[in-house]
Amino acid sequence: xxxxxxxxxxxxxxxxxxxxxxxxxxxxxxxxxxxxxxxxxxxxxxxxxxxxxxxxxxxxxxxxxxxxxxxxxxxxxxxxxxxxxxxxxxxxxxxxxxxxxxxxxxxxxxxxxxxxxxxxxxxxxxxxxxxxxxxxxxxxxxxxxxxxxxxxxxxxxxxxxxxxxxxxxxxxxxxxxxxxxxxxxxxxxxxxxxxxxxxxxxxxxxxxxxx
Length: 211
Ligand SMILES: [Zn+2]
Prior knowledge:
binds zinc ion, Gyrase A, domain 2, alpha+beta, 4-stranded antiparallel beta sheet, RNA Polymerase Alpha Subunit, Chain A, domain 2, 2 domains
């Protein structure tokens, strides 16, 4: 008999005991949690002005790695969106603007300086450093975030840890999922199960079509 016990559930982490399933099935959930549950991340950056000591590419790379709060009910993956546009639309991308300048003293530009057009899609922390500016230096840019998956780039990974351990009893495993903060850990688990279910259904349909 299959059973599932939640040992610990918190927005940042969830720990579950899964009984009565094959190890491969439990491990598939672990792997899907890492690589197939989408999150929002900055993917395109238009630098309008950058007189900081940091190259444009480096600023863009740092922006990409900032985890963004993600509501998966609000946005489509670009490949699934009706707009079918490379530029995206309000259902598949979010614009964040950065306009920062140091006047009389050195200042740090942090994730809190990013202004998002969607208040629900914003950095998970205000304190992530982007660049430091000396007096007279300026950074002005537009950053476009979209949904993506961990298989494409680690910046879209929803989990910072996803671990399966054996409990010593037959067909019993403990699954631990830790969120980077974009999506609550319990939701990552549910989305991973839904994705596995969907993949198995698609596979069945594919097999049936061959017969
Ligand atoms: Zn779209």
